[in-house]
Amino acid sequence: MAIVFDETNLLARMVGDADGITPEELAAAEPLAAQALAGVKALTEAGVIGFPNLPKQTALAGEIVTYAGKVKGSYDTVCLVGIGGSALGAWALDCAIRGPHPVQGDHSAAKPRLVILDNVDPEFVQLALASMKPKKTLVVVIAKSGATAETVATFLIVRAWLAAGVGAKGVKARVVVVTSEGRGDLKVMATNEGYTTFHIPENVGGRFSVLSAVGLVPAALIGVDVPALLRGAAKMTATAWKPDLASNTPLRAALLHFLSLTKKGKTIQVAFPYANRLWGTAFWFRQLWAESLGKAKNRAGVVVHVGQTPVAALGTTDQHSQVQLYMEGPKDKLFTFWAVKKPADPGAIPAEKTGLEGFDYLTGQSLAKLLDVECKSTQAALTENQRPNCVFTLDRVDAEHVGMFFQLLEFETAFAGEMLDINAFDQEGVELGKKFTFGLMGRKGFADFKKRYTDYEARRKG
Ligand code: PA5
């Protein structure tokens, strides 16, 4: 079981000094990597951040698995109500383990599906509700703050839909809440209405929470092997604490991405999975990298406006939509390929010849080989055009590898935050928009934000 990082095509010897990292630059930055490792370790030991310790929470995982075992058979759909860090991890897991949409296959009480309501588009919510049956749906509502407007509004609709379908008294058995222990109105409602509740540790932020109850509850309910997920994450955690750069994959990846951003102007990172099962993970990663590293100020309060814009592209599909730009457009990108060494099914191409040259060179080969060749060909083409790229290769896509990969990318992000000297764990930029929404929707205590918004509208009118 392994995830291998290959950084060769990020180096100057492959893409030239202007775009690639030179041995001198790498050597000079090694002390920064050591500092980043010490910084993340100190934050963990002080309890400021909790994600590194989540794989050790075997008692919580046990409780969640036991709960899932108790309710198994009573639903064929898990309806997750949540947004951002409270939804993307579950999507990543569902896509990786149950399979990508729309080819997951039939759902049943034995093989329940996951429907994620992470947008307040009324048509989307109505279509989703129309596709579910209240008596066969288990609703998981997730909000760390217990107050996100989208989640609360959608949950009120779903709760009323459940009550109409199973009766007011039946709702309790069909709702699970994941929220903070000591704050938020969702917690109050969960207590008042007697919903089964799991808590999110205060020191685990939304985008780092996939291995807390936020990801584990929906995962267990759709049949993901939770112990295997945590086992993989624990293995990567051990790697992430290794002091030497050569064997610490997340630290090395963070350093190379940091140098590509700060020394070579690669302000965009294209996360490029060559596996549909990893497509959800690419969207989860987009939030992790963007919200953690996109910051106005450094730790000393100096305005820096740093960050690297994450973009998700799918191989080979996006070779036919994005690669023209990637090859010839602005030299502002680095590419992080995500490859899978052993797809579960090689996808054998029938050996029978057709007599057509454009077909027959492929007969008897496999889709797995074609996918692999296309991935390597794209890397070679980008490299020839001085476009730096690197690869994470997962042995397989299973719960253990996905757990490893989540933890690898979370550590990489945390280390990169230390190297950039910013706080990777807050999200002030998201909060302002939320406050305007509260003000405009009439929430008590947010009238100032309504006023600020009104002033802004006045300015627009000139
Ligand atoms: O990473 C984050 O902190 C955010 O994306 C949150 O997860 C998102 O805003 C949802 O917040 P909450 O869980 O409080 O509803």
Describe how the helices and strands are arranged.
Layout lengths: L2 E4 L5 H4 L7 H23 L12 H14 L5 E5 L6 H11 L14 E5 L4 H9 L6 E7 L5 H18 L8 E6 L4 H9 L2 E5 L12 H9 L4 H15 L8 H16 L3 E6 L5 H15 L1 E3 L5 E4 L2 E4 L10 H6 L4 E8 L16 H4 L6 H18 L4 E6 L4 H21 L8 H13 L6 H15 L1
Parallel strand pairs: 2-3, 2-4, 4-5, 5-6, 7-10, 7-11, 11-12
Antiparallel strand pairs: 1-12, 8-9
Helix pairs in contact: 2-10, 2-15, 3-8, 4-8, 4-11, 9-15, 10-15, 11-15, 16-17
Bound molecules: 5-phosphoarabinonic acid.
Which CATH class of the largest domain?
Answer: Alpha Beta
* SSE string, helices as H and strands as E: EHHHEHEHEHEHEHHHEHEEEHEHHEHHH
Rg from C-alpha positions?
Answer: 23 Å
Taking the alpha carbons of the first and last residues, their distance comes to 61 Å
Count of DSSP-assigned helices: 17
Whole-number count of domains: 2
CATH superfamily of the largest domain: Glucose-6-phosphate isomerase like protein, domain 1
Largest sheet: 5 strands, mixed
Q: Which strand order do you get reading across the main beta sheet?
A: 1-12-11-7-10
> What is the third-level CATH name, the topology of the largest domain?
Rossmann fold
Residue share in β-strands: 5-15%
* pLDDT < 50 runs, ≥5 residues: none
CATH architecture of the largest domain: 3-Layer(aba) Sandwich
Bound molecules: 5-phosphoarabinonic acid
Helix content: 40-55%
